Amino acid sequence: MIQLTVNGKPRKADVDPDTPLLWALRDSLLLTGTKYSCGSGLCGACTVHVDGQPVRSCITPVSAVAGKKVTTIEAVDGSRVGKAVQEAWRKLDVVQCGYCQSGQIMSAVGLLSKNRRPSDADIDAAMAGNLCRCATYVRIRAAIHEAAKALA
Amino acid sequence: MTTIQNLSRRGFLQGTAGLTLGLALPGVSLAAKTGAAASFEPTPFLRIGADNTVTVISKHLEMGQGTYTGLATIVAEELDAAWAQVKVEGAPADAKRYNNLFFGGAQGTGGSTAMANSWGQMRQTGATARAMLVSAAAKRWKVPAAEITVAEGVLHHAASGRKATFGELAEAASLEAVPTSVTLKDPKDFRLIGKRAPRKDSAAKTDGSAQFTQDLHLPGMLVAVVAHPPRFGGKVKAFDASKAKAVKGVVDVVAVPAGVAVLARDTWSARKGRDALTVEWDDSAAFKLGSDEILARYRELAAQPGLVARSEGDTAGAFAGAAKVVSASYDFPYLAHAAMEPMNCVVQRTDDGLEVWNGEQFQTVDQATLAAMFGLPPEKVKIHMLYAGGSFGRRACTQSDYLREAASIVKASGTRAPVKLVWMREDDMKAGYYRPLFHHRIEAALDADGSIRAWRHRLVGQSIIAGSAFEPVMVKNGIDAVSVEGAANLPYAIPNLQVELHTPTDIKVPVLWWRSVGSTHTAYSTETFLDRLAAEAGQDPVAMRLKLLGKHPRHAAVLKLAADKAGWGTPLAAGKPGERRGRGVAVHESFHSFVAQVAEVTVAADGSVKVDRIVSAVDCGLAINPDNVRAQVEGSVGFALSAALHGEITLKDGVVEQGNFGDYAPIRINEMPKVEVHIVQSAENPTGIGEPGVPPVAPAVANAIAAATGKWLTRLPFQAAALKA
After folding, report:
1. Given pLDDT bands bounded at 50, 70 and 90, which one contains residue B22?
2. Chain B closest CA to A56's CA: distance in Å?
3. For chain B, which end, N or C, has fewer CB atoms within 10 Å of the first or last residue's CB respectively?
4. pTM recorded for the entire structure
5. Which domain of life is it from (chain B) (predicted)?
6. What CATH superfamily is the domain A2-74?
7. Angle between helices A137-151 and A80-91 (to 10 degrees)
8. Angstrom distance (rounded) from CA B528 to CA B70
C-alpha cells in the first residue's frame, strides 16, 4: 500500500512500489484524465505535477512520489495559472481528439508557473515533449500566449 | 472511401432535394417511456428533455474532427435552440436508424462524409422538432402557429406576451403529429451555421472528464494485454505462462488467434504478465520480406503495363512523336496511424449477446464480424460509441482486427466479466493496417514548346479494399478505386493520358485507409511532377496549372486564392547565410473538397528542412463551422508534415522495425509552421474537411524545396542527405 497526496487529498494505492504513477492514478485511484500513450516518456500525455513540477507519470515509479504532492488534470483549475490555461484552451477551442490535452495543459501550466511571458521559443522548448497527433500546435501556442495575457 | 460516397450520393440527393425526406423511424413521436418527465424525440437524432436540455444524437464518431459540434450546429440552427442548452451523445449501433447515407445501409464514419451525408438529415431533424414545438404551443396558447416565433430555445407569442421554453413544451410536442414536410431556413438567416459555435467537447477534454475507451472502469472488469507474433501471419507454436500467472493481479492466460493474452485486474499487471510470457512462434506461414525487397518488386512491376484505370486519347502514339520525354519514380513507405490513444476496446459476453465499448467508427462491419464469431444476430452486439483519441482511419478497420482480438479473448477465457483489450504503444505501431507502401512512375511527353502532350502514370501498391466487405462495390475490373484516387481523376487538360495500376497480392502486410487515403501518395507524385514539367517549360507553376484547369473552376479558385494570400510572385525574404529558401504550391481535390497550399521553406546547409509557413485555401462547400474548418486544416498540415519529414514504417525480414515515438516521430510543436487558412465563400452543400487538408501539404513543401535547392525529392519521408549544400 502506497500513501500519496493527490490533488490535495491523502490517498492510498494498493500497488507494487515499482508500478508507474500513471497506472496507480488511472487504475487504482480512477483518475483517468492522465493518459497512457507511449509508456516511455516520449509523448507527454501522462504529464502530472509532482511538487509543482511537470513529471512523466508513465516512467515515474509510484514509490518515488510517496510523501510528495501530486496534481493531475482533474484539479488543474485549483491554481490561478491552471485556471487561466484551462480557460484559454476553451476560449480558443484548442482540442481535437483531446487525448493528449491533459498532458499539454499540465506542461503549459508548468511553463507559465515559471515564466509569465514566454516567447515562441520558450514555448517550443517547454512543450516539445508533448506530442499531439492532431497537431493542434498552432492553437496550443496561441492559448499559452492567451493565458499569459490573462495572468499579466 | 470516395466510391462509397459516389455510389450512394444519388440516393441522398433524391432524399433531400424536395426537403420532405421521411424520417427513418416509424411511429416517430416517442414520449419517454420512463416514469420521469416526458422527453420529446421527434427523430432518432434529437431528444428534448423536460429539463430544457436539447440532446443531439450523433451517428458519427467524434475522433477530433469536430463532428459532434458540427452535427449539433445544424440541428440547433433549424431548431433555433440556444447553443448552451445543446448536448451531444453518441448513437448506438443501429444501421436502420443511423446509417451513413453515403455508405448505403451501413453505419460508420469515414471518407470525410459526416457533415456531407448528414446535412439534409440534421436540418430536417431540427426543423421538424421546431414545427412540433410551435404546434404544441399554438394549441396550448390557442393562437395561430404562424404568430409564434422561436429564438434561443424560447417560443414567444408577441401579441399575447406568452413565452415557453423547449423543456416546458417537450411533453406536449411529443404528442404532436410529425409533419410530413417542413420548411428549412433560408441560408441568409443562419445564425450558427457559418458563424462560431464553440466545440461541445472542449470542457470535458480540458478537465480530464472526457470518457475515452481507455478510461472505462466497469465492475469486475479485466484488462487484457497480448503477446503478438513478430511477423504478420505468425502463429503461436507453444507458450509457457507459469511466470505470467505468478504476477500479482494476473487472472488468466489464454491463447487466441492473435497471440497469447494475459488477463489481469489492472493494466500494469496485465502488461507485466504479458512481458513474463515465454512464447515460441510458428513463422512457417508468416510474411518475411523487408521493405527494400517489396520496393524492388514494385519497381519491376512499374516497368510493365498495368490494368488501365483511365485512358484518354492515344497515349502510346503521343509518346512516339514527343519532342522530349520526362520521367520520375516515387517511393512511399508504409505509415502507421499512431493515434495518441492506442487501439483498445471493451467487450463483454452478456446473457443474450455481446456488449462493446469502443471509439467506434464502423458499427455495421464490427457488429457483423463479432456476431459471426459468437453465432449471434448482429443486433445482439450492442455497441457504445465513446470518444476516440484519434483514429485517422485506424478505427474503421475493414477486418475489425482489435475488436476481433478482444472478442476472441472473451470467448477463449469464457469470462462474463467485461474485458478491456489494451494495446501498448508498441503493439499498436507493429499491428499493421498501415497506409500501403506505394511506388509510382510518371512519364510525360512534351512538345517542343514544353506543353504536355501525354501523361502516363503507373502505380504499384496493395489494395486496401480487396478482401473486405467493400470489394464488390469498390473494386471494378481489378482496379481498387482508392488506390488510384487523385491520380485517375487528374484534373489537368492533357490530351493523351493513361493511368495504370498494379495490385500485388502476395504482399501480406495488412493495409488500411490513412487520413486522405490514396491522395496521400497520388497528390505528391502528380503535383511535384507537374512542377517539374513547369520548370522544363520555363513556366510559372501557378500560371501553368491555371492554364490546364479550365474545366475545373473550383480547383482554379482555391489555387488563385492561396497564391494571392501567400504573395506568390513576390520575393521571399532571404535566409541566414548558408540557408536556402523557397516557395512551392500544390492543389488537390479529395472527398469533393478542394484545397490549395503554398509552402515556404528554409533548407539548412546540412539539408535539414524547416517549413516556415503554409497558406491554405479551402473550398469545402458551405462551411458549417469555419473555425473548425481552420482547425482541421491546421491539424492536417501537421499530420501531413509528420509523414513528409519523418514518417516511415519499415520491415526487415517481415519484422516491423519501429515501435514507439522515438523511431516513428510525429512532428512536435517546434516543427509546426505558421498556418493560414482561407475559406472560399460557397453556397454548395457541405463536403468534407477532416482529410482534404492533408494531400497538398507534402507536394507544396517538396516544390518549395525544389525552388530553394533545384532538387526534386522523389522519396518520402524527405532525406536530408539529398539536400546538403
Report:
1. very low
2. 15
3. C
4. 0.95
5. Bacteria
6. Beta-grasp domain (3.10.20.30)
7. 130
8. 34
